C-alpha cells in the first residue's frame, strides 16, 4: 500500500476489524486516539494539518450511527458539523475520504432492492443524520467514496447483536418481525469491503461516488434472529428456545426502521469487483468474539 492511511475510530468494532484485516496483509493504519470529548472541528483541524494522510476512513462516530439504541438530535448535529469540517480539510489537503453510511437513508416503502440511483427519504432522526452526513461530504469533498451498508452486526456488548443476545438470555418471550427485510453484514465483511476499496484507490483509480454493500442473501429480521440463536447456543446454553413472529407495523421502532432495507450491490461489484459474501458464514467468528468479550 503506497498511500498513508488514517483511521478515525480505530477503537470501535468495525475499526478493530479493519485493523485486524489490514495487519494480515501488512497494511497499517495511523489510528489516533480521540480527545476526551471526542473529535470536533478544532481537533480534526489540528490533526489533519499535522499528519496529512493520503486517505482517511471515517469511523469516528460508528457506534452512534450504526449500533446505539438511541442518540440525541443534538449529538447528531454536532457530529454532522464535525464531518463537514473533516470533509473540508480532506478537500483542502487532497486527502481521499471514505465515509460509511447506511440503508437507513431510505424509507423502506418499496419491496425491491434499493440501488444507488434511488432517491433517499429517511424516516427517523438517525436516517436524517446519515443523509445530512452524505450531503456535506459530497458538497465539501468531491474525492469521496460513500459506502452504504446493510444491517451491520458487530461483537460490541451494547450493540444491536449484544442487546438481542441479552434479551434472549433474560426474556421469557422474544418477538422479531417476519416481514422486515435487509442484508445482514458482519463487521469483518464490512472491513473486507473497505479494504478492497482502499486498495483500488491506492492504484489512483478515480472511482468516487456512492456504493451499496450488504451480505449475500437478503432475509427477515426473524430469520436472522433464529440463525444467530442457533449459532449462539453452541457457545452459550442459557438462551430462549423460540422467537415469535411479529408484524413490522407492530414493532416499537416501525416509525424509524425501514421495513424493506435490501440493498442492490451490482454497482460495487461492477466497479470494484467486490462480491457479496454470505452473512451466515460470518456468524461463528462474530459470536465467538462476542462471548469472549462478555
UniProtKB/TrEMBL annotation:
Q: From the UniProt record, give one GO term of the biological process aspect.
A: dTDP-rhamnose biosynthetic process
Q: Residue ranges of the RmlD-like substrate binding domain? A: 3-291
How the cofactor is bound: the record states: Binds 1 Mg(2+) ion per monomer.
Gene3D superfamilies documented for this protein:
NAD(P)-binding Rossmann-like Domain, UDP-galactose 4-epimerase, domain 1
From the UniProt record, list the reaction(s) this protein catalyses. dTDP-beta-L-rhamnose + NADP(+) = dTDP-4-dehydro-beta-L-rhamnose + NADPH + H(+)
**Per UniProt, what is one GO molecular function of this protein?**
dTDP-4-dehydrorhamnose reductase activity
| Cofactor(s) needed | Mg(2+)
Top-rank taxon, per record: Bacteria
Q: What is its EC number?
A: 1.1.1.133
Q: According to the UniProt record, what class of enzyme is this?
A: oxidoreductase
Keywords from the named record: NADP, Oxidoreductase
Gene Ontology CC terms: cytosol
Locate the coiled-coil region(s) and give their ranges.
none
Identify the metabolic or biological route this protein is part of.
Carbohydrate biosynthesis; dTDP-L-rhamnose biosynthesis
Q: Which SUPFAM superfamilies match?
A: NAD(P)-binding Rossmann-fold domains
What family name appears in the similarity comment? Belongs to the dTDP-4-dehydrorhamnose reductase family.
* Role noted for this protein: Catalyzes the reduction of dTDP-6-deoxy-L-lyxo-4-hexulose to yield dTDP-L-rhamnose.
Q: Record's PANTHER family?
A: DTDP-4-DEHYDRORHAMNOSE REDUCTASE, METHIONINE ADENOSYLTRANSFERASE 2 SUBUNIT BETA
- Name under which the protein is recorded: dTDP-4-dehydrorhamnose reductase
Amino acid at each position: 500500500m503506497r498511500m498513508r492511511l488514517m483511521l478515525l475510530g480505530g477503537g470501535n468494532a468495525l475499526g478493530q476489524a479493519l485493523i485486524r484485516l489490514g495487519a494480515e496483509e501488512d497494511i497499517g493504519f495511523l489510528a489516533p486516539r480521540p480527545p476526551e470529548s471526542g473529535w470536533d472541528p478544532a481537533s480534526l483541524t489540528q490533526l489533519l494539518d499535522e499528519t496529512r494522510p493520503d486517505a482517511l476512513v471515517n469511523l469516528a462516530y460508528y457506534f452512534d450511527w450504526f449500533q446505539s439504541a438511541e442518540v440525541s438530535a443534538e449529538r447528531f448535529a454536532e457530529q454532522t458539523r464535525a464531518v463537514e469540517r473533516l470533509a473540508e480539510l480532506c478537500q483542502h489537503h487532497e486527502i481521499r475520504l471514505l465515509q460509511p453510511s447506511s440503508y437507513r437513508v431510505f424509507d423502506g416503502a418499496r419491496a425491491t432492492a434499493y440501488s444507488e440511483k434511488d432517491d433517499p427519504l429517511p424516516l427517523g432522526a438517525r436516517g436524517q443524520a446519515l443523509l445530512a452526513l452524505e450531503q456535506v461530504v459530497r458538497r465539501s469533498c468531491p474525492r469521496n467514496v460513500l459506502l452504504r451498508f446493510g444491517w451491520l452486526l458487530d461483537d460490541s456488548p451494547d450493540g444491536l447483536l449484544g442487546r438481542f443476545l441479552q434479551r434472549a438470555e433474560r426474556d421469557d418471550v422474544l418477538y422479531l418481525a417476519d416481514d422486515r427485510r435487509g442484508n445482514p453484514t458482519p463487521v469483518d465483511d464490512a472491513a473486507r469491503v473497505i479494504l478492497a476499496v482502499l486498495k483500488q484507490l491506492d492504484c489512483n483509480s478515480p472511482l468516487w461516488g456512492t456504493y451499496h454493500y450488504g451480505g449475500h442473501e437478503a432475509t427477515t429480521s426473524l430469520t436472522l434472529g433464529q440463525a444467530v440463536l442457533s449459532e449462539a447456543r453452541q457457545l452459550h446454553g442459557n438462551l430462549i428456545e423460540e422467537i415469535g413472529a411479529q408484524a413490522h407495523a407492530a414493532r416499537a421502532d416501525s416509525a424509524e426502521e425501514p421495513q424493506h432495507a435490501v440493498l442492490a450491490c451490482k454497482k460495487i461489484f461492477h466497479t470494484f469487483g467486490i462480491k457479496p459474501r454470505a452473512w451466515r458464514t460470518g456468524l461463528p467468528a462474530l459470536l465467538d468474539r462476542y462471548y469472549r468479550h462478555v
